[in-house]
Amino acid sequence: MKDQYILVANWKMNKTIEECGSFVDKFMNLILHKPKSKVIFCPPFSALLYMDGLLKDTSFDLGAQNVYWEKEGAFTGEVSAEMLKSTGATYVIVGHSERRQLFGDTDESVNKRLKAALSNGLTPIMCIGETIKERKNENTLDVIGRQLKNGLDGISNLDIEKIIFAYEPVWAIGTGERAEPNMIDEVHNDIRKVLNGLGVDGSDEIAILYGGSVNQNNIKELLELNEVNGFLIGGASLDADEYASIIHQSEQI
Ligand code: PEP
Fold first, then answer.
1. What whole-number distance in Å separates Cα of residue 126 and Cα of residue 144?
2. What pairing do the DSSP bridges indicate for beta strands 61-64 and 38-42?
3. N or C: which end of the chain has fewer CB within 10 A?
4. How far apart are CA 96 and CA 100, in angstroms?
């Protein structure tokens, strides 16, 4: 049970400028007070600046879905941390499993992205999680440990404490197959142990989100998990009614 959850909407490659506008119009009529939860929208790069305009003067925050580690130069198609900041974004998702699986992100590139985000004052939302094969082979905790140790290599404890972690089992993302509460508790506990092992002070205070097929119908029992500080939500965040319902439910706990 938490005083405040962190709810991150990962819109992936969805929503044109016009669609972002319609969503926000509808959403603002559904959420009439400042929610207790911290609500972060991560639209595609193309809509960051526009969304910043819409969210200004609200309690909602803005994040990007990826960041490149170089400052500037001949890197066609990439976007730097400084560029993200100039749109108004203050958060960035790093190492999402779709980036790892479809676009070749590795623990090493995740590490460079985290460093770039942190050194530019962006708060990273670092995604980690096992594939179905790794779970079936009982390798989940090894995989999580490796992703954390390699991904956080060379990052100071002070900076690690600024990161929001998101446990996202790959097999649960966009599949409708949500992980069971006991699985989530086990992995979240393990993440805290790994962070403790890295010597991170106050790892009990570090925010660890769960992501993977969370929706308005299945979030209730997860809100009751002690180990869960919030949620990274893909599909269910695309619909204003459903995302508003999730926010309302997170208030009632
Ligand atoms: C995600 O995009 O990180 C995610 C968890 O997606 P979904 O909620 O659709 O499973």
1. 12
2. parallel
3. N
4. 6
Ligand 1 lined by 176 (C-beta under 6 Å): no
Rounded CA separation 34/5 (Å): 13
The residue with tokens 């979030």 is 219
Is the distance from the beta carbon of residue 174 to the nearest atom of ligand 1 less than 6 Å? yes
Active site residue 188: no
pTM above 0.70, yes or no: yes
Q: At what angle do helices 181-197 and 140-151 cross, to 10 degrees?
A: 40
**pLDDT per residue as tens, the chain (253 positions):** 467 899 999 999 999 999 999 999 999 999 999 999 999 999 999 999 999 999 999 999 999 999 999 999 999 999 999 999 999 999 999 999 999 999 999 999 999 999 999 999 999 999 999 999 999 999 999 999 999 999 999 999 999 999 999 999 999 999 999 999 999 999 999 999 999 999 998 778 899 999 999 999 999 999 999 999 999 999 999 999 999 999 999 987 6
Q: Residue 44: what residue type?
A: P
Give the amino acid at 180. E
**Ligand 1 contact via 52 beta carbon (within 6 Å):** no
Can you name the residues that pair with 62 across neighbouring β-strands?
41
